Structure formats: C-alpha cells, structure tokens
Amino acid sequence: MRTNIIHEGADELSYEIRGIVAFAEKLGTLGVPIVWENIGDPIAKGEHIAPWIKDIIAEHTKTDVCFGYTPTKGVLATRHYIAQSRKKESGVTLSPDDILFFNGLGDAISVVYTYLRRSARIIGPSPAYPTHSSAEAAHAGAAHITYHLDPHRNWLPDIEDIRNKVKYNPSVAGILIINPDNPTGMVYPRKVLEQIVAIARTHGLFLIADETYARLAYEPKEFTPLYDVLGSDVPAIVMRGLSKEVPWPGSRCGWIEVYNKDIDADFARYVKTLNDAKMLEVCATALPQHVLPAILGDERYDHTVASRVAQYATRADRAYKAFASIPGVMAPRPEGAFYYSVVFDDLPENGTLPIKDDTVRREVEHAVMGVTADKRFAHYLIGATGIVVVPLSGFNTDLVGFRMTLLETDDAQFDDIVEKIREAIVMYRASVK
C-alpha cells in the first residue's frame, strides 16, 4: 500500500480464549475427542434456560415493537427499570439518560477504549481479561498497564501497586475493576473497593467496573457493587449484561451505567462521545432490551440464579480439593463467576505428556516450538486428553498456569475432567525429573 494502513495497536490484539480453538479443532480432525474448557458459554456446556424465561421471550416475539429500532441509548422503559432497581438496591440515584445499551459488553468495551484520547491510559488487573487489556492496549498503541492480583492472597489486588503506578504515571486516567473477576473468580471485598475509590479520588481519575458476573458471587461471599462505595465525587462507568446471568450469551446485550458524570467537564464530554458513537450505529438489538425487565423483575429470577450459583460453588469446592493438594501449585478457590485459575510455582519448559497417536504427537511438538511454558502444557494437555484450557499467560500476566471453567453440568464428567487435569499436571512436571 502507498500509505501504511496498519493501526498502531494492531499487534496488541489477542484473545487466547479463542486463539487455542484452531489447534484443538485440528487435533479433533485427527480423532482426539475435544472437551472445551476454554470459553465461558453456559449453554455450550449443557445449561438449560428456565422454561419461564423462554416463555417470556416467546411472548415478546409476538409483538411487532421487538422487531424495530430502539432509541439510541436503549428502550426507555428498560432504562427506567434499571435506574429504579439501583435506587431500590442501594439508594443511589441513576438517571435513565445515563444508561447506554450495546450489542454485548464486548461492543461496549471496544467503544469505551476506542474513544479515549490516545494518551489517556486505563490501568487494569493482571491476570487480565483479554477483551479489556487488548482493547486498551490497541487504543494506546502500547502494552496494557496493569496492577497485580496476588494468588498468594486469594487473588486480592495489590493496593500499593495500584497506588504507586497511578502516582508515578500521569498518563493513567482511570482504573478498571472486574468484579467478580475473570479469570480468577475473586470477589473484591468492600474495603478494597473503598481503597481503590480513594485512590481515584486523590488523583482525579474515573473508574470502570465490569460487573458482568455481579449476581454470580458465591454464598456467603458478599458482592459489593461499585455504586455502593462510589460516593458523589468520583466519576465511574459500570458495565452489566445478560450474557452470564440469565444466561443468554447469544443475546449480545450489555449496557453501561454512568455515575457522577457532571462533576467533571472532561468526563462528561467523553460520555457524550460514547453516546454519539452509538448513535452512528443507530441502536443496539431490540428484543433482549424489551424482555430484560420481565426476566430480571420476575419473582422466579432470584431462585433461578441462586440455584446456578450453588452448582458453581460446589464445583469450585471439588476442583479446589483436587488442585490445592498438588505440591508447587497455587489454586485459590474462586468466590464468584464460573472460572478456576491455577498457577504453577514452576513448570518445566520442556515437559511432555504421553500421546499415543504419532500424528497427534508430531502436531503438538510442532505447535509448542517457542511458546510460553504454560502454553506448551496446554497444547500437550489437548493432545493427551482432549481437554482445552486457556494458558494463564494469555491473560496478560507473567504468572504461569491455566484457566478452566466450572460449567460442565454432568457431575461425573466434571470430576473426570478435573482428575485428568490433576494427573496431567503431576505427569508433566515429573516428565523432566
């Protein structure tokens, strides 16, 4: 091309959660039975949508309005419902005009970072959810700035790390919180959230809270939404959606809630830009917006969610029992969402697992040349067992490990997956001794 058309941040875009799929599919064609533990899709892992939710959706499809455009910000009645819900839950005042719908939170995340000034940076947790870290890095054309989540302290964030990086890096304009966290399953304690809000207040920053899994915190762990501790003097964007909580990932329905917009002129102008960008797209998908109040407001909804959460918590307990007993492995029990992250104190850079099929073994050996230690383990795990996990290095961290899901609905199958992974860890580490 006579003019360089490559975006400065093109090399920052990566999504290992799906990146490993092509290799697993290739082994699948060679006869390896694949077990997908890489992506958080409850439907793909056998969860069934409650019949009453399907009935609500089906009834709404009979109305013509669900087939038309919505207002750019979203269905007004739905935005009113969300605003009233926040008032009821926490006593906070949220205007329906400060709610903006997107085609899933992936869309929202892309827009939120794309329309930041390029020199303005958002610091986020590490391990990082790659949709956030890649989008933020791509907008800036530089590596994502992160703060440390400590597996030795049940994945709690290092507050001093946040404080120092904010203090000595004037380009940082905001702090990202993912709560409950993906990929670790950590739930931010109220006191920690208050400390992060205080840092933002001291340095004139805004906050982004991705609360996709807000209703999926395990008992007795208490989830604290950001707006509970925000106060009236720190601007913030809270992200919510239907994908994980209904669950309805195919709805592609997410929204942002803007708090304390008018206390800072620059932040208010930035939020206007987000609204203007959505206006260029016209609107988000109509049907999920129209059914949202009927589903979330139904008296059966809390019971449905609680039943799902109890299953995730039980699986977390079983996985913790298997992984935490392995020497040299850190496996803090998740407190929310449906992921489990395991960290290795050390992992051989040339470890292997026995693979009976020579063709499969050669494919694995070719694929692992020059990759990180945990990516090597993940590839050998697929070749030896068919189980697909995500290397932890794919989450913008120097930690070596992997993330799996807690979504398998067949108890015997789940226990078999966990046991095969546990055995693979032991064999892999012993392969070079």
Structure, described:
The protein has helices at residues 16-19, 21-29, 51-60, 76-90, 105-114, 130-140, 159-167, 190-203, 265-281, 286-296, 301-323, 358-367, 373-385, 411-430; strands at residues 35-36, 99-102, 121-126, 146-150, 156-157, 172-178, 206-210, 236-241, 254-259, 329-330, 339-344, 387-388, 390-391, 401-405. It folds into two domains: 10-47 and 302-430, Alpha-Beta Complex (Aspartate Aminotransferase, domain 1); 51-296, Type I PLP-dependent aspartate aminotransferase-like (Major domain) (Aspartate Aminotransferase, domain 2, 3-Layer(aba) Sandwich). The mean pLDDT is 91. 41% of the residues lie in helices and 14% in strands. With 433 residues, the protein is an alpha/beta fold. Helix 6 (130-140) links the parallel strand 3 (121-126) and strand 4 (146-150). The longest helix has 23 residues, at 301-323. The strands form three sheets. It has an eight-stranded mixed sheet, sandwiched between helices. A four-stranded antiparallel sheet has the order 10-11-14-13. The chain contains 14 helices and 14 strands. Helix 4 packs parallel to helix 10 (286-296) and helix 12 (358-367) packs antiparallel against helix 13 (373-385).
Feature tags:
433 residues; alpha/beta; Aspartate Aminotransferase, domain 1; 14% strand; 14 strands; Aspartate Aminotransferase, domain 2; 14 helices; eight-stranded mixed beta sheet; four-stranded antiparallel beta sheet
